[in-house]
Amino acid sequence: MSFSFARRCIQLLWSLFIGGDLEMTVYMVERDLKGISMEALGDAQKAAISQAAEMTSKGTDISYLRSTFAPEDGRCMCLFDAVSDADVKRLNDDAGLPYHRIVPALDLTP
């Protein structure tokens, strides 16, 4: 059983028994964008934001939070707030954005 499936089951049970909303989790998407132009990087960010808005309008709670890009080696870390990693995967796949992996993360923004 995957971590995300188990987490989702616990959240659903909590929601049914306690009546609370499903908890959103921050997910980090790791990308290798070495050699990308600043224009293409901006377009990728716009695509993530647009796809999140479209999914939300259709009932999937997900939002793009922010990205950090290291131009020297092309590493890019993008943060999304979502109920599941599957939703984050679908957003990136549907937007045509490359990634290596998607992991739960802690957003330590003060």
Describe this structure in words.
- The structure is a single chain.
- With 110 residues, the chain is α+β, with helices and mostly antiparallel strands.
- 43% of the residues lie in helices and 26% in strands.
- It contains three helices and four strands; from the N terminus they run αβαββαβ.
- The protein has helices at residues 3-18, 38-57, 85-95; strands at 25-32, 62-70, 75-82, 101-104.
- Helix 2 packs across helix 3.
- The longest helix is centred in the middle third of the chain and has 20 residues, at 38-57.
- The chain is globular.
- The protein starts with a helix and ends in a 6-residue tail after the last strand.
Helix and strand topology:
Layout: H1 3-18, E1 25-32, H2 38-57, E2 62-70, E3 75-82, H3 85-95, E4 101-104
Antiparallel strand pairs: 1-3, 1-4, 2-3
